[in-house]
Amino acid sequence: QVQLVESGGGSVQAGGSLRLSCATSESPNDFIRIAWFRQAPGKQREGVVGFYLGRVTDYDDSVKGRFTFSRDNGNKVVYLQMDSLKPEDTAMYYCAAASRFRDTWDRASAYDYWGQGTQVTVSS
């Protein structure tokens, strides 16, 4: 049973930083893709960053230059470093993993496993 557990969310002021963690039951390298998504109230879940092929990292345009994906295969953790946070970054953030390739990295349907989410709130 694959498990993904997010942590690190919280409330910060605009311009601040947070680092989200996603502890996985398997090594991140064992997944075809692993990604961070977010969902704000009343909006669709959207891809923030996707990592795949063991070397490719794609970021949504809205977070490029501000968010950084990283992974620690040995400790089975992936991270999302979020800097220069904006109020529009406020959302529930989810870790997702895929065991096979389908769709594009930023489609929720591309992933088989999801964490429970961690809330990020950015105030102006």
Helical fraction equals under 10%
Mean pLDDT: 96
Largest sheet report = 7 strands, mixed
Run of helices and strands: EEEEEEEEEEE
Please give the number of β-strands.
Answer: 11
The backbone outline, from C-alpha atoms, is globular
Straight-line N-to-C gap: 40 Å
**What ranges have pLDDT less than 50 throughout 5 or more consecutive residues?**
none
Count of discrete alpha- or pi-helical segments spanning 4 or more residues: 0
User: Which band does the percent of strand residues land in?
Assistant: over 45%
The radius of gyration is 13 Å
Q: Pairing-aware structural class of the strands and helices? A: mainly beta
Task: Write the SSE topology.
Elements: E1 4-7, E2 10-13, E3 18-24, E4 33-39, E5 46-52, E6 56-59, E7 67-72, E8 77-82, E9 91-98, E10 113-114, E11 118-123
Parallel strand pairs: 2-11
Antiparallel strand pairs: 1-3, 3-8, 4-5, 4-9, 5-6, 7-8, 9-10, 9-11
Molecular structure report:
The chain has 124 residues and is mostly beta strands. It contains no helices and 11 strands. The protein has strands at 4-7, 10-13, 18-24, 33-39, 46-52, 56-59, 67-72, 77-82, 91-98, 113-114, 118-123. The strands form 2 sheets. Strands 2, 4, 5, 6, 9, 10 and 11 form a 7-stranded mixed sheet that branches. Strands 1-3-8-7 form a 4-stranded antiparallel sheet, with no helix packed on it. A hairpin with a 4-residue loop joins strand 7 (67-72) and strand 8 (77-82).
